[in-house]
Design goal:
single chain; alpha/beta; 2 domains; 4-stranded parallel beta sheet; 4-stranded mixed beta sheet; 8 strands
Amino acid sequence: MSERPLLAISSCLLGENVRYDGAHKKDHWLIRELGRYVDYRAICPEVAIGLGVPRQPIRLLKINEDIRAVGVSDATLDVTEALQNYAFDTVPSLGDISAYVFKSKSPSCGVFRVKQYHPNGMATAKGAGVYAEVIGQQMPDLPMEEEGRLCDPVLRENFVSRLFTYHRWQRLLMDDLHSASLIDFHMRHKYLLMAHSQAAYQRLGRLLSNLKGQDLRQVAKAYQSELMSALNRKVSRARHANVLQHLQGYLKKAIKAGDKVEIADNIAAYHRGELPLVVPIKLLAHYFRCYPNDYIAAQAYLQPYPDALGLRNAI
């Protein structure tokens, strides 16, 4: 597996002219910013199943409890099974990807609140695209997001954190699995996990507490599910502040009283919403460079992804 994460992505988001109208939906942040640190695998399920470019657009039609992907102007065009079958066929080839970015609102690729139309023409926005729904069901631990939601700084930071964490986990599984490597991974992600869910961190710790004689692949499977479920939760300012205070505790014997006050004041200001997260993070990083601590240096929380992405500047 490459050192750079591999992302599956809707082809139109990379600028490919594959949409029903022959256009694209190039996403500049994905290409120019995130693209500096990841590689992409472009997928357009509608083109893959043989729909042309340009083509008749499709929509989700709800008939009783059945959801069908049909043509907008000609409902006899029904590509539901074709999209589902393509998704099932695609899943085995996605084992090396670390996340998937889908096109929002798409009847094939949308993940959240895709419009479902009733025969009377009324629409409700509560479904998932036919293709994306199968991918999500078959790969529940895979970080998935829509490009539209990535405009939200909190969702963007959360997604990228999951992406790089999942990639680190995948690289761990590529090697011979040992009890020590699982425990080391858990140790390195202690504070990242605690920020999302202290209860999940504790459950994962209990899972790894007695590995002698256990099937490590089965343990790893259970760990992965709990890990990715926990990281999918948003982190509040209060939880970030709690983790920052824990990290500050490792400096209590090294720094002067005035420095402790400075750190505490910055954490409190962040908690109140007066500073972005990057400020107390950078301040702590500065003091840990002056007073190195091997345990803290190993923590993914301080740098879960490349700093140059600047994601903590906006949360």
